[in-house]
Design a protein that fits this description.
The chain crosses the membrane at residues 7-26, 38-56, 68-88, 108-133. Residues 159-327 form the Calcineurin-like phosphoesterase domain. InterPro entries: Calcineurin-like_PHP (IPR004843), Metallo-depent_PP-like (IPR029052), Metallophosphoesterase_sf (IPR051158). GO terms for molecular function: metal ion binding; UDP-2,3-diacylglucosamine hydrolase activity. By secondary structure, the chain is an alpha/beta fold. The chain has 2 domains: 2-135, no CATH class; 142-383, 4-Layer Sandwich (Purple Acid Phosphatase, chain A, domain 2), CATH 3.60.21.10. The protein has 10 helices and 12 strands. It has helices at 2-25, 33-54, 62-103, 110-136, 174-186, 203-210, 228-232, 235-244, 285-289, 309-315, and strands spanning 141-148, 159-163, 191-195, 222-225, 248-249, 253-259, 262-268, 298-302, 319-322, 346-350, 353-357, 376-383. Helix 9 links the parallel strand 7 (262-268) and strand 8. The radius of gyration is 24 Å and the shape is elongated. It starts with a helix and ends with a strand. 43% of the residues are buried.
Length: 385
């Protein structure tokens, strides 16, 4: 019932936003009536397609659901740019008209009004096309060196390849995952870390598309932690499936690695909000490291959400690898991530703890990345200078 009420509100707000865009752009655009009618028709189609795409998971016929998802989510990505640019145009026109009024010249700037109304949809299409390319290409490799005090010589150059937030689902399928696996294996890491949100859907629908993950190969294996989307999709069944694929799932647990005579601890916690789905899965960094060797020079925590960092620092971890934020994925969401998370992307030092937040290896929702490129992250441990 609550979800239905939210969806109805979402549709209502979406209709109002589409009306705003139409009213602000169509009358001002320097085009003929046929093109204005076409623009209005496209906005009506967008109003219909966006909620249909977001609700596509509830359609049992999988090929049909995927087609609706592609149409609706692509429309959502395009409309988000259209809405943002329309608002930016209104702000620009307000200040231009204000300056005209203060100068005592005629207010209006008709050419600017007309051609800015035309520029907005053209720019929205351009930005969405670039964003689509960025989202659908294989994520590039980002290399990060993490300086560790008193790092044993055997662990200098120890390499962890992190992938995160793949979101296998309506628009991300097996071939997309295969390209990621090939790239990761080509880096020949000592360890692979998968920091949650692997899937967006059920095991029966997506198991075939996650199967390439079984091919991930590293000297010390592949370790995975759950993200919030695993809990939306049936976490227990996915945990069993990931283990069937040969991945080590860490549920508030740790493993001690022996790397050429030096010890390193790799721990993992359940998603920060997992306890609201299953009290037995409450995220607990202290529990994850309990019983680990106190003299281990490196203690790495895999935690889907960056906001696990406070508890991770208190528990004595050296490095936390996280995802979840997507770096904002595309404008303007980059600016809102900090309302929920302490870190958006990249490497920071927090209360003595290094935290690396991946922008994600796939994408969620609209197939669009703009200003926040995806990544496969190669983390290398180095000694402090």
């Amino acid at each position: 019932m609550r979800r239905s009420a939210f969806f109805i509100r979402f549709i209502g707000i979406g209709i109002l936003f589409h009306i705003y865009v139409g009213v602000r752009l169509i009358p001002d655009a320097p085009v003929g009536l046929p093109l204005k009618v076409l623009a209005a028709a496209l906005l009506v189609a967008s109003v219909i397609l966006i909620p249909l795409g977001m609700a596509a998971r509830s359609i049992e016929a999988q090929p049909l659901a995927d087609r609706f998802a592609w149409l609706g989510l692509t429309a959502l990505g395009l409309f988000s740019s259209l809405l943002l640019l329309t608002f930016a145009r209104d702000v620009m026109l307000f200040f231009v008209h204000l300056v005209d009024w203060l100068r005592g010249v005629p207010v209006g700037s008709p050419l600017l009004v007309a051609y800015s109304a035309l520029a907005v949809p053209l720019l929205a299409v351009l930005f969405s096309a670039i964003g689509f390319y960025n989202a659908r290409r294989r994520a590039p490799v980002v290399s990060v060196d993490v300086p560790i005090e008193n790092l044993p010589a055997a662990l200098v150059g120890f390499t962890i390849v992190q992938i995160s937030d793949i979101h296998v689902g309506p628009t991300i399928k097996r071939h997309y995952v295969e390209r990621i696996v090939d790239a990761v294996n080509g880096l020949k890491p000592d360890l692979i870390a998968v920091t949650g949100d692997v899937v967006d859907g059920s095991v029966p629908h997506l198991a075939d598309h996650t199967r390439p993950l079984a091919g991930l190969s590293a000297r010390h294996g592949t370790f995975l932690v759950t993200g919030n989307h695993e809990y939306y999709s049936g976490a227990d069944k996915w945990i069993a499936e990931f283990r069937r694929l040969g991945l080590t799932v860490l549920l508030n647990q740790h493993v001690v690695l022996n790397h050429d005579g030096a010890q390193a601890v790799v721990a993992g916690v359940t998603d920060y909000g997992a306890g609201s789905f299953d009290p037995a899965h409450r995220s607990d960094p202290a529990k994850a490291i309990s019983g680990a060797p106190a003299d281990a020079a490196v203690r790495v925590l895999l935690a889907h959400q960056p906001r696990s960092a406070t508890a991770a620092a208190e528990a004595g971890f050296t490095l936390q690898l996280s995802g979840h934020t997507h770096g904002g994925q595309f404008l303007p969401w980059n600016f809102f991530v900090r309302l929920q998370q302490p870190f958006v992307a990249g490497l920071v030092k927090f209360n003595g703890l290094w935290v690396y937040t991946s922008r994600g290896t796939g994408y969620w929702g609209p197939p669009k990345r703009l200003g926040a490129p995806s990544e496969i992250t190669r983390v290398r441990l180095v000694a402090t200078a």
